[in-house]
Amino acid sequence: MTPAPGLSRIRIGSAPDSWGVWFPDDPRQVPWRRFLDEVSDSGYEWIELGPYGYLPTDPAELRAETERRGLKVSAGTVFTGLHHGPSVWDSTWEQVSRVAALAQSQGAGHLVVIPSFWRDDKTGEVLEDRELSAAQWRELALGYERLGREVRDTYGLRIVVHPHADTHIDTEDNVTRFLDATDSDLVSLCLDTGHYAYCGGDNVKLIETYGSRIGYLHLKQVDPVVLAAVHAEDLPFGPAVGRGVMCEPPSGVPALQPVLTAAQSLGIELFAIVEQDMYPCEPDRPLPIARRTRAHLRSCGA
To answer: Less Cβ crowding at N or C end of the chain, within 10 Å?
Structure first.
């Protein structure tokens, strides 16, 4: 295969998610030292923190462990339910401040913010309405603008909101409604290619239409055959991952080359962090996939 033209503005990385890590502590997950060893061995330079508490939370220890493996941190991640309004602000900020402070201490520039799920990720129990009311949309927009301002002013980080399956920011209609309702100076998007495809969106179209709002990428693919069954059975996201709905590139959709080319054309520096949801998975499975995925991205010019 002839390598694609270089994508000089795209910085590639990976995350604990690609090693089957969803929780701070779980016996079915690989130990954090093994993750760091293997992500470095796979050829990646950038990582995310993953769930708070999985990697060391002492800044000096974390810096020492990453630096000796040639790794750097691009972002931390938090989950929020800001459509509930001011009543959840204090608990939200308590969580955000821990993660943002650790990310800042490692030189990261971003905080990935994922909306809360409307149904339980494991059991499928419906926790709240699938659709937001007009009042909840207003609270959501105001909450994210406040969060963007506070995180920027306090920690110097930019929030990038992550559309996600089984949340209220998922489909093209909901993603564009959210973008239209929020201040571009305060709120950018973490476009997860797999989740957006999972929910029926066209990644390249979104980049071309809302390019100024794209602040970060997660690279992921879905298996269209498994996805069709997931939608037919209305499966929650957790069981869908267990069936293998998120698959190894380049076997799924969307094709990553057009996405990366569209992102490069924006003319800005962007992180593109590989995530392949695999929780739970056998401990020897992630490393070979990571190596093959990195090779595929090199063939795409990344």
So the answer is: N
For residue 116 the two structure tokens come to 């809360």
To the nearest 5 percent, what fractions of the chain are helix, strand and coil?
Answer: 45, 15, 40
205-254 per-position pLDDT tens digit: 999 999 999 999 999 999 999 999 999 999 999 999 999 999 999 999 99
Residues forming beta bridges with residue 110, ordered by sequence position:
75, 158
Q: Which amino acid is at 120?
A: D
pTM of the model: 0.96
CA 207 to chain CA mean position, Å: 16
Query: What count of Cα atoms within 13 Å lies in the side-chain half-sphere of residue 158?
Result: 17
DSSP 3-state of 131:
coil
Residue written as token pair 């149904």: 119
Q: Which amino acid is at 13?
A: G
Q: Are the C-beta atoms of 107 and 63 separated by less than 8 Å?
A: no
Residues 182, 189 contacting (CB under 8 angstroms): no
